[in-house]
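Support case: adenosine-5'-triphosphate complex. Customer-provided input:
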Amino acid sequence: MNDAPDLAELERRAAGRGPEYGEKAHIVCDNLVRIYQTEGVEVIALQGLDLLVGEGEMVALVGASGSGKSTLLNILAGLDVPTAGVARVAGADLLDMSGRDRLRFRRELVGFVWQQTARNLLPYLTAAENVEMPMRFAGVGRRERRARAAELLDLMGVGDRAAARPGEMSGGEQQRTAIAVAVANRPKVVLADEPTGELDTATGAQVFAALRRANRELGVTTVIVTHDPDVAGSVDRTVGIRDGRTSSEILRRTTRDASGREEVIAEEYAVLDRAGRLQLPREFTSALEMRDRVRLALETDHIGVWPDRSNDDHR
Ligand SMILES: Nc1ncnc2c1ncn2[C@@H]1O[C@H](COP(=O)(O)OP(=O)(O)OP(=O)(O)O)[C@@H](O)[C@H]1O
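Agent response - structure generated as follows:
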């Protein structure tokens, strides 16, 4: 006898979870787990990551090397399959997808920009031909392809480089062309893994500006993995990943001071998952020497967290 719950039972259990988590979000990660097995050793790259991104949002993902950012991006791109949890992008369920749907998802619903310029563009095609390539796969007619490629290269500020091959373009021009390629098929989501990583500050700023233009003018939801503080500081929302989980978020909003000047206010938040778990920033816990256990108190409008002093008398 097999005691494992059948599909109907799993669906019943899932239905009992109350209102669907992230029902309206464009990207939903719920308790996402990715375990790699290499030579008998398990690496838990994502250990229950939660993330919601709304349609049209532009979000930066930051975190130490090895925290799981690229793993997450590869899953959202449909290139890697999570071990457990929920991952949905633009309505597509990334855990339950046939090979054919996955291919369609990668061709039509997401666009990517990688750090290595060589990975983004075909070296023997011109910039315009590179932008036309995904449209060709999608069966777009020649005239429409040409017009859209020209329009997108213009939007990215590299319209005058349309006839150049990647080897004849600067790194920044190649990355801006890569963004045009990524959005060619009108994807719902663009994923960029360190798009400015190989560029100097000024060129990186131009590439970021091109991504932002794609986000604002084409309305495409954009997720950027970055170590670049200028990029992380320029988006409305920066999500910190620590040890395979979302740990904190910085939200920025623009207001006007008394003299009418614009100022950006950045506020830090901790991510609270459905089970009530949150990660306190390491600087906070180490400043107050918090370890193992903390004391909590519910106040009318906040929760107080204190170091555990209960054993101090016995020491
Ligand atoms: N294909 C793989 N096989 C085995 N382990 C992997 C694989 N890919 C990633 N890992 C491990 O998973 C963890 C998360 O890696 P990941 O590349 O997602 O981190 P990251 O935050 O993107 O790091 P970086 O900023 O250096 O790119 C690391 O411990 C890494 O060694």
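The radius of gyration is 22 Å.

Case will auto-close in a few days if no follow-up is received.
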